[in-house]
Prior knowledge:
By secondary structure, this protein is of the alpha/beta class.
Amino acid sequence: MRILVSACLLGVCCRYDGQSKACLAALELLKHHELIPICPEQLGGLPTPRPPAEIQGNRVINRERTDVTAQYQKGAEETTRLYQVLGCDCAVLKARSPSCGCGEIYDGSFSGALVPGDGITAQALKRRGVRVLTEETLTTFDDAE
């Protein structure tokens, strides 16, 4: 299978804080699958490092109170385009991220509180019928699905 994966889960230092969040389960996929690393926030034109951002209503606002919705939307569009052009089969994205979160994201208050929801890129992929997992739900990964 060809799997789109958040680059930070593969050890690439592309997170907002300039760090990675390497995930052994994601790296294990390399043994049997072709992985396509992506960072929607970088694809949207944001620098690394960058101020943390959270979804507030239908906007993405960073801690400095700057609206970065357009960059997040562009990153989602570019990620979706790569998914389609490269013929990917599913996506494994970073949990709780305002781009990649799937099922649960930060509530927009920068307090660490979580709410049900999806990040901008996860929403875009799901709208196209893409199976989206996170590093936390990767244990449910099954090639047969």
